[in-house]
Amino acid sequence: MFAEKTQSAATVEDYLRHASERVNQALDRLLPSEQELPVDLHKAERYSIFAGGKRLRPALCLAAYEACGGQGDDALPAACALEMVHTFSLIHDDLPCMDDDDFRRGRPTNHKVFGEAMAVLAGDALLVQAFELVARGGNAACALTLAESLGSKGMLGGQVVDILSEGKHVELETVDFIHRHKTAALIAGSLVIGAQMANAATATVEGLRSFGFKIGLGFQIVDDCLDLEQTTETLGKDAKSDLAKGKATYPSVMGLEASKKKAHELIESAIADLRSLPIEGTVLESMARYIFTRVH
Fold this sequence. Notes:
Elements: H1 7-30, H2 39-49, H3 56-67, H4 76-93, E1 103-104, E2 107-108, H5 110-114, H6 116-136, H7 140-150, H8 155-165, H9 172-197, H10 202-229, H11 232-235, H12 241-245, H13 250-254, H14 256-275, H15 282-293
Antiparallel strand pairs: 1-2
């Protein structure tokens, strides 16, 4: 079991709750309503977007924006775009041709409710609408960051290697590649976009990118461990599914305790990087520690 929650974890949960409320209100306003044609598509999008979740990626974006001196809601559409692309990835990840999962965030997966074709289209729509939001903001650098986080050198590249590695013996280098691309790239991109929205200096942007990759890998290692230790009810998704599918995970290569140690080392290294930056990083540091102490 991971360490007990600290006071900083309790504080960051308050921050995440507030960020989630802001993001949910904005998403409700920015996404097409369920009454707008095509009704089935928009229902499917909203089903997964509003299924729950802590909105970690948009919260990291907003926290980075504020840490770099940004004020107000200028970064909120970009934060919503990040949640849209994350949800797109979950919908597609759960499909029978991918991980074939039945539950996500404690409810039936999108394709179980709306069918495979509509789930594919709902994910596609969220991806397109996310780029539309960023484009309307007029920040080309943010659009480029989002694209790089998602493409063959980001999330999609990691997903390909993840699929090709199922049921095979893989080295730690392969596991690192999968999760650096599939998970950490978008978490790092969330921080970078927040900094870019605040017009942060290049060195600060790159420092937050490094911080993001480390906490992103730590996040995935914790996820891998929780998949083995927690129940489906606690996780809100199928427990022990990685083991059943022969997924390339940190515990499968390093063992459970060594994986937890690596996650702790990554988080501490990330915090050391963060403290070297000329920003107010208190919230970001608390969020990094929360990743290690979270229950699910």
